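Hello Y.,

Per our agreement to keep a running log of every chain we model this quarter, I'm adding this entry. I've kept the format consistent with earlier entries: sequence first, then predicted structure.
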Amino acid sequence: MAEVVRKPRAVRGWSRPGGGSRKSKTAPRPFGARLLWALPPVALLALFFLYPLALVVQQSLRPDTGGTSFQPYVDVFASEAFRRALWTTVWLALASTGGCLVLGFLLALVIAFVPFPGAKAVARFVDVYLSFPSFLITLALLFIYGTTGIIGSFQFLTTPWGVLLAEVTYFTPFVMRPLLAAFSQLDTAQLEAASSLGARAPRIVRRVILPEALPALAAGGSLVLVLCLNEFGIVLFTGAKGVTTLPMLVYSKAILESDYPGACVVAVVNVLISVGLYGLYRVVSRRAGA
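Predicted structure for the entry above:
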């Protein structure tokens, strides 16, 4: 009977290539080494981002009379200027987001599903448009709606509706980009099947395209809402009378009134709202696969 030669079992964490014995390269690093590698980025984050925010929060708790108190928050929350700025910021952001969603969906629909010469070039221009500064779009609108513009006699751009138009014009591509990506993944067989069954274009859009576009609409709308909430350049550059948003109120209190505790209070409120909305944007983007 032939002898059965038993091979030695491999020891966990060791391998024997070529008859040798060597420690596996996949062994986890000690906790101390991982902590050491994490310290530099954490320190940079704390120095350049968290420390300035901590200074703003600290200054918001220091009234001009000295000491530490919540009196600056009480004074700001009780002021009519803050409540008016908060309301203006919220309704402008919501209205701009709604306009961007409607206009962005229609434009993305045309670019993706209506064949016309230069459709690909237009889609690429949307990507380039995202890099434009907001004041450039406002400057272009000044040549149309400004005091010396084509229809400047209506003084349209210096009203809240002018700010709304400028924000919708600038932020609409931020909705179009995820929509175009979603439309490129849409199965065209569904559209062909619906068309062969006699469904007209509005019904196809409502029953086939819109359900597939909802996650991208939610992600793009959440991002636009956060950006509109913190928009400063458009409001400042239009020179709209009586339009004071939270960022404009921070500028006014800090630069014009030298009320630094009040400015920091408004800034803290703006940051808290922005962080909350950004958290919502991340949740929606994760569910949409963006």
